[in-house]
Amino acid sequence: MSQGISQGTSQGTSGTGTSAPAAGATSLAGYALGPLDRIRLRVFEWRASRDEIFAWTALNDEFTIGADGTLSLPIIGDIPVAGLPTREVSRLVARRLRDRMELADAPDTAVEIAVYRPFYISGAVDKPGEYAFRPGLTVAKAVALAGGPPRVTDGGLLRLERDAITARGDLAGLHKDRDQLTIRLLRLAAERDDKPKIDFPKELASRPDPGVLALIDRETAIFEARRKALATQVDAIEDLKRFLRQQIDALNGQLATIDTQIKLIATEIRSNEQLAERGLATQQRTVAAGRSMAQMESEKLRTTTELLRARESISRADLSILDMRSRRATEVTGEMRDTERQLQQLKPRMEVAERLILEAEVSAPRFLTDRAQARRAKPTYRIARQSGAGVQEIGADDTTTLMPGDSVSVELPNIDLPAVSWPAPRTGAMTSLN
Prior knowledge:
This protein is an alpha+beta fold. Helices cover 52% and strands 15% of the residues.
């Protein structure tokens, strides 16, 4: 459960400009960026010829680092930033922009963390879940954000049961969202590969879930409609090309007729000239034949021009089809990228919901059996932290400083207590779609 948005303070600058250090920035000096961190980028350039500071408005915005650790920026493209501090990212952006726009000098670039990726806390706390990170956060503060040690009341058992039901409802909703995104991704893949139909996996198509079947029917209808729309446009252009080819054939026939007439008129002109030399024909006949020759030559030029225009129209029609298919491929690729990103964002939310169910149905009853002893026991803390070599387990105490993305586990010492019965968890809502 997110508890608001924590504004980051760590900054990095590149270029000739300077920036004032943000308050508390020293608490996360050298912080390495990672997935789900949101950065605020500022890019400015001093243009001496105009005596003004130019702001790169397309880049002056907040951007979220993707699940694969890349930062997608307009103009520049994708930059791998996982594990880098903000100052290094600032230099990378400045260099990329300078090289891409062929600038003489790199622009002044500032990168700061707008929102840190969340941290997670589970175990013996009142409100386990996902929380917004803030600089200077210690284990003790994190436990306080999560409501402190479990405070079980007489109605605690009912509350835990309600929490489990709510968590299962949330998880079921997340599974429906994942099913919808997965089926959409299958449809987009079929469109990208220009398949005649969508190949749904057998385990998906055979699931006895009316919701899944409705999603399959909807995406199939969208697939057919989009495919038909593209085919209709292409067919219209192909019809135009067939008409133009018929026109070209007619013009070629017309040119052949004109060439024949020109040959006949040329023969007539030569004959008249010979007769005129012998005084058997007047000059008037020769002039009339020449006039006819000029008319035929003009008609041939006009017909040739129409022929060239028709061929040019066919070329433009071919280009239109290519452009139409290219635009569709670009659109489908963009939709697939967005859908995959949404699927990636669902994974940690589903993991948190499953852990909440586990806490509500398995771990929490232990605290109900002896509240006083549970409250008096001193907890132990373990931190799971992502590093370059993988997930690192760290022992901690109340004063240990946390980092964004940490997963804090709070445990109480094992106590021999009477067993507490609890309903077995239902697995129907947690069925996975692989």
